[in-house]
Structures are given as C-alpha cells and as structure tokens.
Amino acid sequence: MAGSTAPIIFILEPFGGSIRRHNAALPSLFWDDAGVTRGDGVFETFLVRQGRACNAQRHAERFAASAQRMGLPAPDVNYWLKATEEAVSAWVEERGEEAEGTCVWTYTHGRASTGFPSAWLTITEIKPEQLRQRREGVSVLTLPRGFTPTEESAQWMLTGAKTLNYAAAMAALRHARAQGCDDVIFTQGTGEDARVLEGATSTVVLVKKNGKIRTPLSGGEVLRGTTQEALFDAAQAAGWRCKAKDLTVADLYEAGSVWLVSSVRIAARVTHLNGKKLPAPDNEQEVRALIESAVTSA
Ligand code: PLP
C-alpha cells in the first residue's frame, strides 16, 4: 500500500470489540443514520504528527463528556485510543512518519430503525487551506451568534458538547468568505462591548502587550478547547501568566496578538479583524512555537 493516498477508515463497535479497516471507495453508513439525518452525534478532531495522535488524553476526555451530554452510551475511550494507534500505524506505513494528518472520531445515535449507535474513525490529509492559514494567519469577521442560553435552557441545550451539528458554523464561515474573510469570531452582542465567545471551529486566545495570555471562559456557549488547555499548561510552566475570563471585542483590538487555536490548524494569528489590520507583534514566532510545542508534546 506504500504511496496510497486513500484516507484511512476504521469502523468501530460502539460497545467495544473488533476494529475493522474499511475500504474508502465504498460507502459505510445507512440512509437513516442519525448522524446524517439529524447531526445527532459527537466527534473529535486530532492532529496526527510524527506517528502519533496529539493531545489524545484531552480529546478522549472531551469525547466522553460530549457523549454523556448527548445521551449516547458511554464510549470505552481506551478502545478508541487503541483503534487510533492502529490507524496511525497504518497511516505511517502508507504515508511515512513525516506525513501530518487529521484524525476524526465520530460517534452517532446510529440507525433510526435499530437505535444501534454508529462509530468510526478516519485519518485524512490536512486541507491545504488549513496549512496556509497556519502559516499566513487569518482575516476574521466578528458575528453575533444569535442565541444565548439561559440557566434553564442550558440544562437541555447541548452547549459545551462537540456535536456533529456544525451547520450554523459552516453558514457563518460561508458568510465570512463571501465578504473576503477567512474566519469568524462569534460574539454575544454587537459592537466593541460585545462579549467574545469562540471561533467557528477554534478557541480565541489573546496575548496581551504585557505578556499575559487570556481566553474566554469555557462552558455555556464556549466549547472547552483542548489546544487552549494544552497551551495554558505549557505556557504557565514556562512562566507566562494565563487566565480564562470574559473578553470584549475591544480587548481583541488592544491585544498584542490574537490567535485562533485548534487541533489541526494549531495556531492561526488574526491578521485582520473586521477589516482592520492587526500588526504582527515582535514575539509572533515565540508565541507560535509555544502553541505548537504545547500541542505536539501533549
Ligand atoms: N471551539 C469550537 C466551536 C470548535 O469547533 C473547536 C474545534 O473544532 C474548538 C473550539 C477548538 O478545540 P480544539 O482545540 O480541541 O481543537
């Protein structure tokens, strides 16, 4: 199989058991899978680098928490991690140790006709656009998210779970692209006083001019980010002062640098915010290296 460019697909048994390599040229889901018809499932996206899935423990923990929030049977994360190791070995065998990839775990409520969950994982190539944004940064539009969970609605809403339902995030990205931007930061409210939530598929991290690192509090409307968590652990150990707290759009304009961090793109610096240029800080390379090493050593 050396030289193969087909994605790696493994079908898992939701209650544990055999792991089966699936031929990428063949379909694997039924027409009535709740993941497809309702977006009713959860997923995790990992970076594969140097023959390993990075930050795996944090991803596995968030996966289990999302599944619980979605009413899915508790996944055996050790079984998923073992399947991931097998898939990464196959990836390295077929592409070589240097090939970076995107590994995705998907777990859905399964077929409407059986109610038996579906579970699979894939490793694919990283999209060239993501690699470009990693290198060159992103121009970003702030957009109000349009809903705010109250204490009562938060009890049933799936805030905080990484669900398959990304239709609103994809629509926001299309809207941003139509206006010549690469990405979106969701806010609560409008204008400079608006509260910063998160990127469409990333966590907002801000490095202040005095060297402090800030991110919006997670929970509620903000998904807990595994990249941000790894960064804060590594940065704190290296002497940076890190804190999660409420941030406004005005804070973004005033920061030394603003970053969108996520597992595969890792760190994309925000170069333009609502059309305004955010100049590169002197410590850009230092911050980038800190984020990269935090993720890849976790
Ligand atoms: N917030 C949202 C809404 C996301 O979709 C993602 C990642 O996909 C993140 C934050 C960043 O999470 P992570 O760093 O675990 O990739």
TrEMBL record:
Gene Ontology biological-process entries: carboxylic acid biosynthetic process
Recorded superkingdom: Bacteria
GO cellular component: cytosol
GO molecular function annotations of the record: D-alanine-2-oxoglutarate aminotransferase activity
Listed InterPro entries: Aminotrans_IV, Aminotransferase-like, BCAT-like_C, BCAT-like_N, Class-IV_PLP-Dep_Aminotrnsfr
Keywords: Aminotransferase, Transferase
Protein EC: 2.6.1.21
Pfam families: Aminotran_4 (PF01063)
Family in the record: Belongs to the class-IV pyridoxal-phosphate-dependent aminotransferase family.
Name of the protein this chain belongs to: D-alanine aminotransferase
Source species: Corynebacterium lowii
